[in-house]
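Ticket #4471: structure export looks truncated?
Reporter: QA, pipeline team
Priority: medium

Steps to reproduce: submit the single chain below to the structure queue and open the exported record.
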Amino acid sequence: MSKRKVIAITNQKGGVGKTVTSISLGACLAKYNKKGLVVDFDPKGSLTKGLGYRDSNSYPYSINETYMNYKNAIIHTDESFALLPANISLSGADIRLSNVMSRETIFKRVIDTVKNDYDYVLIDSNPALNLFTINGLVAADSVIIPAQAEPYACDGLNDLLHTIATEKKQLNPVLKIDGILITMTDARTNLSKHIANEV
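Actual output as written to the record:
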């Protein structure tokens, strides 16, 4: 049996294409007959809404309930991959979990109960370096870092790389970086070429 893989799509900067990358990668894997689960790990629920689940009443549970009660919240979408949805109910969960024992590994325990049902689990991280992001990194085997081709693309990358190195050292020794994905770029321009080289 091939190894199951959990990939975190992570950058603490918003608007760099994490959600689009997660959906697109999920769809591409499905095209190649890989069974995938895409996890929305952002209280804004952009991925969930982008897949057509705009009304939180249209699904019984979200990742928030899975976090707290381990209920099965997975939705089988029309996109040939499954979804673990999120909505505004996730907001503030990091504060509620701040005093919980082993709080950095809560999500890993949830993912470990379902990941053997999938070839790939893709985690669409929220745009911050907080407990959600740390939980995503601890649960993941690897990280893809989307970075927009703009003049300040490298700002904050050092903080993220430091966080990844810390999690690798302290909580997840197998974690590796698959790569930095340049998004929203025009390879014909000198600026985009310069930014890509800088990254």
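Status: closed, not a bug. The export was complete when the record was re-opened. Leaving a note from the reviewer for reference: The CA atoms of residues 138 and 172 lie 5 Å apart.
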